[in-house]
Design a protein that fits this description.
alpha/beta; 4-stranded mixed beta sheet; 8 helices; 10 strands; 39% helix; 22% strand; globular
């Protein structure tokens, strides 16, 4: 068995908080630059130019790329050969508190959704945990801004709705969202499981590399078809019109009950922030 110290986790989580908010993922930046080259709408091209410039300034000057530095969402993969002599969730939250303080990141968490008193630490984080083989700890940090997170939904569809029903649901939802989630967006779609599982699947789908290809060829085909249809909506960068409404569509599926077909949509803004470390 391998022991991991609490301080190491706190320090690494703090670094992830800062890195994720300062530095856009390289694959996303490359996609934005390619989108700029291909964008035919003049205003859309100008907006993409400003987005790229903003992200470069954030990285070079070590400041947040967006004033909404997000709700802390953490995915943990804990090897079965690891043990802790402390509360791992407490350590994660201490790391978030430290990172948001040292990185001068906005604290956006309220104690109660009704009474709205700020916790002033950006905690508690939302933490999802999996046990896996081995003696490693993988921590994925994905801060999620309110604008894009608010453009999320779950629908308990009928199996008879089929692929075309799913596609119509996604297209209609993205169309109605318009410029609210700060496009160009990445659309995460979770299909299957049950009500809550589909939502987690949609969020996990957003963690994939932006140019990867779904290992399920049928889902890969649906992703491509949806991306093409979404980019024909003329919502464009930040909602000002153009060819680039979405940079990617990512689908993750799971077995489900014979009478159900849950479908969740979780949208990322153009920042698509996430960083990870393996300890």
């Amino acid at each position: 068995m391998r022991k991991i110290e609490k301080k190491l986790i706190i320090d690494e989580v703090a670094k992830l908080c800062i890195e994720a908010n300062y530095n856009i993922p390289k694959d996303v930046m490359n996609k934005l630059k390619k989108a700029k080259e291909n964008e035919r709408n003049t205003l859309g091209k100008d907006v993409l130019t400003e987005i790229i410039k903003n992200d470069e300034i954030a990285s070079n000057e070590k400041v947040a790329m967006c004033q909404d530095t997000g709700l802390a969402v953490v995915f943990l993969e804990i090897g079965r050969e690891i043990y802790f002599d402390f509360d791992i969730y407490e350590a994660i939250n201490e790391g978030v508190k430290k990172g948001y303080s040292e990185g001068y990141l906005r604290k956006s968490v309220v104690k109660s959704p009704i009474f709205r008193e700020n916790t002033k630490t950006n905690t508690p984080a939302i933490i999802h945990t999996k046990l896996v083989a081995g003696d490693k700890l993988r921590i994925i940090f994905a801060p999620k801004g309110g604008g894009s997170e608010n453009m999320s939904t779950v629908k308990m569809m009928k199996p008879s709705d089929g692929i075309e029903g799913i596609k119509k649901f996604v297209i209609d939802f993205v169309k109605n969202a318009g410029g609210n989630p700060c496009p160009p967006i990445i659309v995460g779609i979770g299909i299957g499981g049950n009500f809550e599982k589909s939502a987690i699947l949609a969020k996990e789908a957003l963690l994939r590399e932006i140019d990867d290809v779904n290992e399920d060829s049928e889902l890969a085909k649906i992703e491509n078809e949806l991306l093409e249809e979404i980019n024909r909506l003329n919502i464009g960068p930040m909602g000002f019109g153009g060819d680039t409404t979405a940079l990617a569509v990512k689908i993750k599926s799971h077995p489900c009950h014979i009478a159900s077909m849950p479908v969740a949509i979780n949208i990322n803004c153009h920042a698509a922030r996430h960083k990870e470390v393996i300890l």
